[in-house]
Stem-specific protein TSJT1 (Camelina sativa), 248 residues
Amino acid sequence: MLAIFDKNVAKTPEALQGQQGGSVCALKDGFLPNHFSSVYPGAVTINLGSSGFIACSLEKQNPLLPRLFAVVDDMFCIFQGHIENVPFLKQQYGLTKTATEVTIVIEAYRTLRDRGPYSADQVVRDFHGKFAFMLFDCSTKNVFLAGDADGSVPLFWGTDAEGHLVVADDVETVKKGCGKSFAPFPKGCFFTSSGGLRSYEHPLNELKPVPRVDSSGEVCGVTFKVDSEAKKEGVPRVGSVQNWSQQI
C-alpha cells in the first residue's frame, strides 16, 4: 500500500523532516505513483487531486496479513493484517455479519467523526490483533493512520522534498521518495491530520523523537518513544460533527 498526502492535508512531525538527503518530489510528474505501479502492475490507484494519492495492491502480500481496500461515502481505507475481536466490534458499531476489518475501521472512524462517544485512543485500543491501516476522509480532508502495539505489520512513513507525507508498507518505496527522512511508523500509535501523532497505549503521555542510525552510522529519520515524564491533557469528548472532526 502507498499513500502520499499533501503537506496542507497532513503535516508530519517536524522531527521526521530533519534529514532531507536523497528525498525527491514524490508527486511531481507522478514519480512515486509510477514507481509503485511498475512494481505492482495490478494495483488500484486513486488520484485525490490536490490532497494526494493512494494505491493498494493484492500482489506480493503475506497471506497471514492480507490487505483489504474499501471506499465508503468518500472515505478511502487500506487495511493490512487481521483483527481478532471482529464479532465484538461488529456488535459495537452495529455492523452486519458480512463486515470485514476494513469496513470496521471505516465505521469506527465515522463514529468518531460524527458522534464522538469514545476517545480516539480508546477506539484504536479496542482493535485486538496484528494490523496497520491508513484512511482518508475526502469530506473533512482528514488522514487517520494506526499500527498495532507490537508493530506486527510493516508500516513506514516519511517526508519528501516538498514536505508531503509518504506512507507505505514497503520500505524501499518510502526510501525512494523520502531519502533519509523516513522511519517505521511508531508502535502503538495513531496519527491524524488535526491531532498529530499520539500513543493510544499511553494517551496522556507525550511522544519524544529519538534519532535513528542506519547501518552506515548516519542519522536516518527518527523513532518516537513514549516520554514517561511528560504528560498531556486528554482529548475532550465533544458532540458535534465539526468539533469532533477537529479533535481526531
Remarks:
- The longest helix spans residues 101-114.
- The mean pLDDT is 87.
- The CA atoms of residues 109 and 144 lie 8 Å apart.
- The radius of gyration is 17 Å.
